[in-house]
Each structure stands twice: as C-alpha cells, then as structure tokens.
Amino acid sequence: MSIPRRISLSFAATSQSEGAGASVRRSIGTSKLRQLSPFLMLDHFTVHPGAGFPDHPHRGQETITYLENTLRERTAPISLRFLALFFPLLILRSMKNANPTISYQLSGAVDHEDFAGNAGTIYAGDLQFMTAGRGIMHAEMPNQRSESNVGMQLWVDLPAKLKACEPRYRDLRKEEIPEIEVDEGRVKVKVISGRSHGTDSVQELAYTPVWIFDVEIYPGGVYDQELPAGWNAFAYTLEGQTTFGDGGGKKVVARYHNTVFEREGDYVRVEVPGNTNERSRFILVAGLPLDQKVVQYGPFVLNTQEEVYQAMMDYQTHSNGFERAKNWESKIGKSMVH
Fold first, then answer.
1. Taking residues 208-237, what's their average pLDDT?
2. Mean pLDDT over residues 113-124, rounded?
3. Predicted confidence (pLDDT) per residue in 36-51, tens digit
C-alpha cells in the first residue's frame, strides 16, 4: 500500500535585495530553512533591463537554468516571466508568478557565456545545465531584447567525489521535454527531470540526482507524484492556491510559499478544489540527500573550510581550474548598465 508524504514545513519566501539589480523571494537558504540537501538555496527573483549576473566564478556545484512560457488568463495584464532553476546569483562581495480561457503566451531569453568557450541563448521552454566542478567563470544576462524577467534560482550541491570534475555545459531544448496530461486533462506536467506517470525525462542531465516537474492543476484536478524513497522534496507555488497532502494532513498553500515534505512516504498528493475558478502552478523538486558537510562562501561550495580557502586562492591566482579566468571578460557582461 502506497503512503502519501506528510508536510513537514510550509512558509512564505522572504523578500530581500540580492545581486546586481535583482530582488528575490528566498525560501531555501534562510533562517526558516537553511539547507535541504542536496539543495542549498532557492530564490524567486526579478531582474530588470540593464541588470543581470556579470562575470563571476563557481566551484563545487551544478546549475540549472529553466526558461518557461507563461500562460495568462485573458483578463490578466501582459507581462514577462521566465522560470530559471539555477545557482549563480550570490557572488563574493569582495569580487565585486470550469478551465480558464488562455490568450497570452509570453517568453523570455537568457544569454550565457563562460571562459571555456561556451556561449548561446536559451529561450522559453529551454533549459541549461552547467556543472561548475573544479572551477568555472561565466556570465548570465537577460537577453537585451527581453523585458523585465522573473525567475527561480536553485543551488544544488555536488557529491564530494565530483567537486573536482571538469566543468561542463548542456542545453536542453523545449522540444526534448516530455509533456503529459493526467486526471482527464485537469493536470498538465512537464517532466523536466525524472519520471512521472510512466514518462521519463532526458537522462544524464546532471551529476546530482534531481527530479524537477513543472505542474499546472485546473479546478477539480488531483495529481499524485511518486518520488524515490528517502529523497528530500519541496514544492514552490508560483500561481494560485494549491492543496498539498492527503486526509487530515491537507494544507492550502498560497503562491510564493515553499512546502517541504517529510522523507517518509511514497508519493506527494496535490489538488485544486473544483469549487474554485483559479488554476494552480508550482514547481515540484526532489533530490538525493548527500551525506556530507557543506561549507560555503559565496559561489564556492566545498566540504571543509580549508577547501574554501583554497578555492579563493585558486581563483585569485588563476590556478587549479581557474587558469582561463586570467584576463577573461565576457562580451555579454559588458552590456551591464553601471
């Protein structure tokens, strides 16, 4: 008999200023939830034109950037949103949102460039996976043809044995992402990473095992998602109100809230009551916990204080993975308005 997971914690993300011209709603990486291994930070951010993430380093983690079309009801104002699941916002200070009628499908774009020669643009529905490994220097900037952007940022730890791996970069285009419908079409799921209702995602996207689903539930819809045993899992609500849990453990969660589930149980149950006129949209994420100590300073995520000191020294001296950082400047970073 399958057992639903209970809710461990549910709370509103904390609003604050962060990075270069960004404002964020942070939920993982705060006093309410310092870490949820392998996840280190989750930001729901807003970046205006002329802002962004200019040249900065990383070591010891992977990044995932997700840009997704935003569907709006006919009565909603036209605005721009992209969902970005990625990690590189925080940089060392010393280094300087019956079925409704849908009418608007809006998109964003993000440029990427790094010192390994990787460069390009990902558009609505695309993803970018980047492994920092032993060291990377890169920039990610909202495409200058786009309006203000709203997205999500997630930091994921790397297993200790892989922190010294070579950096790598991979695009996942929207045409590669399976999309399914369940509960007679009342639930729509984009299987970004993992498995949902017999449908698998593209494999080997990242070293750290992580499942990611972009889920829309219309009134009356019910969604059960099985998760690997023992994995940590959370859901961040982007739009509408979402009911998580089963039986006496149900909880109605508003948008901009993060809901963390207990490890015990086989699946997560989510629903939207049939007596509401509003759909719900949320990101469901699960990952394999890493049995290791986390020592982090800015964009460097290692396992000991000594390794963090070494990462700082390597970056400053352009050695042990940061050789190509010497005199390197991205072209897209220069578009930053000072």
1. 97
2. 88
3. 999 988 888 777 767 7
Average pLDDT, the chain: 84
Retrieve residue 331's tokens: 């072209």
Amino acid at 80: L
Q: What is the 3-state secondary structure (H, E, C) of the chain?
A: CCCECCEEEEEECEEEEECEEEEEEEEECCCCCCCECCEEEEEEEEEEEEEEEEEEEEECEEEEEECCCEEEECCCCCCCCCCCCCCCCCCCHHHCCCCCCEEEEECCEEEEEECCCCEEEEECCCEEEEECCCCEEEEEEECCCCCCEEEEEEEEECCHHHCCCCCEEEEECHHHCCEEEECCCCEEEEEEECEECCEECCCCCCCCCEEEEEEEECCCCEEEEECCCCCEEEEEEEECCEEECCHHHCEEECCCEEEEECCCCCEEEEECCCCCCCCEEEEEEEECCCCCCCEEECCEEECCHHHHHHHHHHHHHCCCCCHHHCCCCCCHHHHCCC
Contact 64, 156 (CB under 8 A): yes
User: Does the pLDDT at position 106 exceed 50?
Assistant: no
Q: What is the pLDDT of residue 105?
A: 24
